[in-house]
Amino acid sequence: MSNYADNATAVAAVLSNYFNGIFKGDVELLRSTFHPQALVVGDVKGQPYFKSLDQYLDGVKNRKSPFELGETIRMEILSVEIINSIAIAKAHVPMFDFNYYDLLSLNKIDGAWVIVNKLLTHVSV
């Protein structure tokens, strides 16, 4: 594991952009955090959720953002594990009436970290 600190900083920057993209509904910023072939998979209130990146971003584009609705950003990184050019991040992503938890797989491709897979679930409080 070379340059762990540099990789951890770069992964944190991707996650910060990911959070800001979701929160503000900035589809281009959000797109920049993902690999073009990424999948978004999980469940929302018990219902299966399976989307391509473009389908997911279309949903973000066609909804009011948490920012527009006057919410405060409460998203946070819970953990990150990096091994060579792969990483897993666990994030808490509360917004709207949802209490999302995301497991994000990242890969360092051509020198840049990108999300290659997003698993999400809503946890009832």
Summed up, what is this model?
The chain contains 3 helices and 6 strands. It has 125 residues and is α+β, with helices and mostly antiparallel strands.
Mean pLDDT: 96
The backbone outline, from C-alpha atoms, is globular
The helix-strand sequence is HHEEHEEEE
Query: How much beta, percentage-wise?
Result: over 45%
Sheet with most strands: strand arrangement: 2-1-6-5-4-3
**Uncertain spans, ≥5 residues at pLDDT below 50?**
none
Radius of gyration equals: 14 Å
Tell me the domain tally.
Answer: 1
Individual helix count? 3
Structural class estimated from helices and strands = alpha+beta
- CATH-level-2 architecture: Roll
- The CATH first-level class comes to Alpha Beta
Protein name: Nuclear transport factor 2 family protein
Pfam family, one: Lumazine_bd_2
Can you tell me about this structure?
The protein is an alpha+beta fold and 125 residues long. It has one domain (4-122): Nuclear Transport Factor 2, Chain: A (Roll), CATH 3.10.450.50. 29% of the residues lie in helices and 46% in strands. It has helices at 4-24, 27-32, 53-61, and strands spanning 34-44, 47-52, 76-83, 86-95, 98-109, 112-122. It has a 6-stranded mixed sheet with strand order 2-1-6-5-4-3. It is globular.
